[in-house]
């Protein structure tokens, strides 16, 4: 990840600081030496001693600062740099005693006290440097009361000023370190965020693929249910009526009745097939409410299959979500189709009950019960016929429940319960 501008500025400042620490001591040593030789070198102060100490200072700086600049500020090299600072201050003190003009060079003690010593130890370094510079400013060490008073005033002033600067520098350094830590943490957080976003993009793409596949599967199941509940049931009814007509060919009245029923079922199946393709509601629910549509379904089923059937509606009828009404109508169709196929019943009762927050549909017959391969004793919806499986799928889509009870010789009862106010967007998700 690209580094922030704030981090770049801190790095630039640090590089400039290292360059200054490497050049300033040489400049100040040269300036002090030049002034000592050219401007004023008091008698009795050997030039050889000045040259030796000045050369020692130059060698010390060259070894520790020029050749090994990376030692400065490193914790594992701190001991060596403390030795360097002590030696540098001793050399500076010796030069100041030889000539106070070397107080210019002694000032570098402040630089390296900040750069080398950790934390509060810097105060010790700047205090020693302040005493050396105070001696240079006083013209040498005190020799009497007046010079001692002057030296003391200068020492206090230098120590106070250098100590304040050192303290503020320490506080600023801590703030910079804290700021850099925050910047590094933010950069790391941004890296993790970018990684998470890339992972989320991958997951999002995967979810889109899964959602697309689920949509395709859901649409296939919807079409399969519609085909089963309309075309397949209609064709089964047509086949039944044509078989009955074949058996009654010698009785013209019965033959015509069965043929007319087969024609009616064929027309209805064609209409339902077209409506399924257009994905609109079933014809019985268009222009009528659910109780009327169920009543018409029960009446026509009873007439086609010659089985007594009756619808009872309890509670106050209320409008339901269109998909809930379609579900209840299709469940009633499938239940009556199963009665016609398997039950051999003589009587069927259909009950539609409106309650405060639920609606139930019960279909009961007095037949022989469901075959073992279709009955609830098989235990799992996957072992049922496609009709019962489609029934469960429809009911699940509207957040409802299905119960099937069947006993040989007693009959079958199918009970469906759905919410009166179903959240179809949530239930279908």
Automatic annotation (TrEMBL):
Cofactor entry: [4Fe-4S] cluster
Catalysed reactions listed for this entry: ATP + protein L-histidine = ADP + protein N-phospho-L-histidine
InterPro entries found in the cross-reference section: HATPase_C_sf, HATPase_dom, His_kinase_dom, Sensor_HK_TwoCompSys, Sig_transdc_His_kin-like_C, Sig_transdc_His_kin_sub3_dim/P, Sig_transdc_His_kinase_ChrS
Keyword 4Fe-4S: yes
Enzyme class (EC, first level): transferase
Name of the protein in its database record: Oxygen sensor histidine kinase NreB
Native organism taxonomy: Bacteria, Bacillati, Actinomycetota, Actinomycetes, Micromonosporales
Ranges where the Histidine kinase domain occurs: 328-422
Protein role: Member of the two-component regulatory system NreB/NreC involved in the control of dissimilatory nitrate/nitrite reduction in response to oxygen. NreB functions as a direct oxygen sensor histidine kinase which is autophosphorylated, in the absence of oxygen, probably at the conserved histidine residue, and transfers its phosphate group probably to a conserved aspartate residue of NreC. NreB/NreC activates the expression of the nitrate (narGHJI) and nitrite (nir) reductase operons, as well as the putative nitrate transporter gene narT.
GO cellular component: cytoplasm; membrane
EC number(s) reported in the record: 2.7.13.3
């Amino acid at each position: 990840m690209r580094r922030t501008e704030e981090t770049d500025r801190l790095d630039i400042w640090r590089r400039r600081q290292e360059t200054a620490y490497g050049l300033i001591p040489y400049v100040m040593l040269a300036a002090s030496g030049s002034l000592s030789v050219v401007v004023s070198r008091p008698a009795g102060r050997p030039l050889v001693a000045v040259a030796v100490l000045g050369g020692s200072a130059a060698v010390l700086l060259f070894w520790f600062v020029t050749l090994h600049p990376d030692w400065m500020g490193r914790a594992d090299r701190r001991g060596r740099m403390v030795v360097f600072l002590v030696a540098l201050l001793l050399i500076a003190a010796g030069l100041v005693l030889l000539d106070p003009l070397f107080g210019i060079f002694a000032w570098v003690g402040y630089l390296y006290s900040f750069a080398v010593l950790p934390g509060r130890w810097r105060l010790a370094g700047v205090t020693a440097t302040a005493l050396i510079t105070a001696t240079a400013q006083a013209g040498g060490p005190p020799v009497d009361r007046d010079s001692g008073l002057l030296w003391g005033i200068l020492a206090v002033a230098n120590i106070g000023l250098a100590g304040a600067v050192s303290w503020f520098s320490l506080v600023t350094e801590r703030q910079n370190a804290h700021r850099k830590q925050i910047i590094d943490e933010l950069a790391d957080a941004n890296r993790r965020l970018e990684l998470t976003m890339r992972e989320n993009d991958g997951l999002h793409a995967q979810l889109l693929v899964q959602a697309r596949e689920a949509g395709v599967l859901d649409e296939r199941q919807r079409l399969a249910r519609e085909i089963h509940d309309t075309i397949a049931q209609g064709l089964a009814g047509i086949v039944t009526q044509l078989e009955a007509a074949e058996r009654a060919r010698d009785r013209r009245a019965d033959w015509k009745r069965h043929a007319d029923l087969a024609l009616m079922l064929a027309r209805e199946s064609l209409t339902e097939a077209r409506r399924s393709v257009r994905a609109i509601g079933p014809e019985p629910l268009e222009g009528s409410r659910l109780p009327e549509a169920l009543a018409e379904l029960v009446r026509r089923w009873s007439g086609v299959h010659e089985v007594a059937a009756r619808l009872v509606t309890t509670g106050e009828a209320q409008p339901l979500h269109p998909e809930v009404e379609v579900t209840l109508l299709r469940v009633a169709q499938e239940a009556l189709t199963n009665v016609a196929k398997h039950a051999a019943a003589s009587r069927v009762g259909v009950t539609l009950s409106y309650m405060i927050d639920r609606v139930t549909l019960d279909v009961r017959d007095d037949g022989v019960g469901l075959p073992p391969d279709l009955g609830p004793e098989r235990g799992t919806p996957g072992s049922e016929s496609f009709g019962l499986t489609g029934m469960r799928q429809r009911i699940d889509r509207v957040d409802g429940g299905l119960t099937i009870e069947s006993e040989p010789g007693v009959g079958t009862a199918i009970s469906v319960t759905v919410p009166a106010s179903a959240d179809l967007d949530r239930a279908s998700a």
